[in-house]
Design goal:
The structure is a single chain. It is built from 10 helices and 13 strands. Helix 7 packs across helix 8. By secondary structure, the protein is of the alpha+beta class.
Amino acid sequence: MEKWVPVALIALLLVGSGGGYFLASNTLQSQVTSLEGQLTTAQQQLSEKTDDYTSLNDDYQALSQEKASLESSRATLQSTYDSLKTSYDTLQTSRDSLQADYTALSSQYDTLQAGVDTGLATLSADYVGLQKDYDSLSQMLGSDVYSTFGDTQMLNDFYKLTLAVRSLNATLWEYCNVVSSFKNTLTTSEVLKMETQVGSIIGSSTDAWANYQRIHEYITSNVDYVHDTESPYIHGYTYRDVNGVRYLTDFDVSTIDNYVQTPEWTLQNKQGDCDDQGILEYAMLRYYNKYIVGTDYNLYLAELDFSDGSGHIAVFMPVSGGQLTILDPAGNYLTSTYSTIASKAAASELEAYNSHWSSTGSITQIRLYYIDPVDGSYNLASEGTRAQVASFLSN
């Protein structure tokens, strides 16, 4: 009995210990299974988060590229804006300058128009007075005097009036005809008025050819082309012979779109047509040659006829060896080589000049005038076709 009890107790303990082991083992297995489930769930969540991260990263990369593109576009737009702003500022400055020029030209035009209106009013008054005298004298001449030839005083008065009308028309013609204007526009007194401006243009330069170009470019850059105002002139004379003397009994007054300015006026007002600009350049070059260079070189004012019926004025400067330099400010033409003034063979240069005027057809006639500054008288040095004038210049 004493030996059985310990054995039984040991057996009982062993049985009890085995049951606890198996119980603990089942618990751990359950925990492992639970953890495995959690691990699987975590792996699934990780995979989902990874997918989300990949998607978000793709979106981030796309947005980064879009941001870079937008920044580039912004930089381009900013550059364009800056360029447009600069252009706008430049245009605004140009507009302000043009507005100032317009205001100045408007003022000059008003002054010119006022002078023209005053001149026309005076001429109109003279015309009315002359016409009244003619009407009275014509009536006397047609009745009493013409039948008797006895009123010597009346005939003398009539003859004086005839001369007055002719003189008036000669004066009018001096302002609306280029050749007739020389005695007003290209005399020594008018040429000497170029002193200050020519001196300012050339400065201290002693290079004659460079100075010719400076004078030419001053005119092309500073004198605007404007069309002439109308000028009156007398025509349509009617005469009656009495004792072998012709008495003017009637005439008409018309207007022509031409008014020849003095070079001083063109210089001061900085506007004129081809007549005015050509005369200005002729006067300035004449002053430079005679009073600065010291030699009054040959210089011609050229009058051109075109095949379309229009006309033009330019300056022809003959050079030794049959060479020619053409200076045409209103026509924007200068005999040059690579933009530098030059002289070229007269025949080829006249053909090049003719090509410059292709829009007007062709140059059909050229008349070269040499003006005597003492009294404005002139010599028609040459007249003819391009070939004929080229031959004259080449001799």
